[in-house]
């Protein structure tokens, strides 16, 4: 049997037909990222609601908060509900997050070391109507487990970010958006769009690797400055040892604030 090639002209296609050379989901629900250059490249002009956004990093210590903090602060302000942090690599550094617009009382830190506990906690947070967004570190998640999270986010229209190692980039993912965050020697970030509904992005997007208020925060933490006392309240969550840590007051600054601000869980 002789095969034949059929060329279809879509120039006169009706409205609602997506073309592969243009950004899709113009009417999809999104949350602005807070970075105009990035929003211009994201389908719908922002992070998708009701879908997974996957963030790949060379290691868990790489900068992350400068990219996500504006959108998380906006989600909290609009909905008046907390952000769930599932298994962050370090304790959230409250003063830096608050300086970026994310109040400390709006954080729910779920401390879980085992992969099953993190997945369970992430699903429960996605099903909770009292959570504005979920940010989870799931380095060992498998494809089927990620699909479950994608379905949970879709059912409840949640804002979901999943952090994974850069080594999984060649593998398949159900995420609607997939980005690689690559630190540069000058302290900036290169954001690669690995997956989106639209044409590939030829060049990475440059973004700041540190928040604009970092200098002022470092000045405020110099020796001799008074530091607010800190206290925490832990709530057992079940399923493999996951624990919710509610940060009630600002965490006392460490002896080396510059090092603390460079951590992945810090809004540096």
From TrEMBL:
<dbReference type="InterPro" id="IPR047610">
    <property type="entry name" value="ImuA_translesion"/>
</dbReference>
<dbReference type="InterPro" id="IPR027417">
    <property type="entry name" value="P-loop_NTPase"/>
</dbReference>
<protein>
    <submittedName>
        <fullName>Protein ImuA</fullName>
    </submittedName>
</protein>
């Amino acid at each position: 049997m002789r095969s034949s090639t059929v060329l279809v002209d879509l120039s006169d296609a009706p409205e609602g037909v997506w073309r592969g050379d243009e950004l899709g989901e113009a009417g999809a629900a999104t949350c602005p990222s807070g970075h105009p250059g990035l929003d211009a490249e994201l389908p719908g002009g922002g992070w998708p609601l009701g879908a997974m956004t996957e963030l790949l990093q060379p290691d868990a210590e790489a900068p992350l908060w400068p990219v996500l903090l504006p959108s998380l602060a906006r989600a909290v302000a609009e909905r008046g509900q907390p952000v769930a942090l599932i298994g962050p690599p370090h304790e959230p550094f409250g003063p830096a997050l608050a300086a970026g617009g994310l109040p400390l009382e709006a954080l729910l830190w779920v401390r879980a070391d085992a992969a099953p506990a993190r997945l369970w906690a992430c699903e429960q947070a996605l099903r909770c109507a009292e959570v504005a967004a979920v940010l989870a570190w799931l380095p060992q998640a498998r494809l089927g487990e990620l699909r479950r999270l994608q379905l949970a986010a879709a059912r409840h229209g949640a804002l979901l970010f999943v952090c994974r190692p850069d080594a999984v980039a060649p593998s398949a993912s159900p995420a609607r958006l997939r980005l690689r965050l690559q630190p540069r020697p000058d302290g900036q970030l290169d954001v690669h769009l690995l997956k989106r509904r639209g044409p590939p992005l030829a060049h990475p997007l440059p973004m700041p690797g540190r928040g604009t208020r970092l200098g002022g925060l470092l000045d405020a933490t110099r020796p001799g400055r008074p530091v607010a006392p800190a206290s925490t309240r832990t709530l057992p969550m079940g399923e493999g040892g996951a624990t919710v840590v509610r940060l009630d007051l600002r965490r006392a600054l460490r002896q080396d604030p510059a090092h603390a601000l460079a951590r992945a869980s810090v809004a540096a």
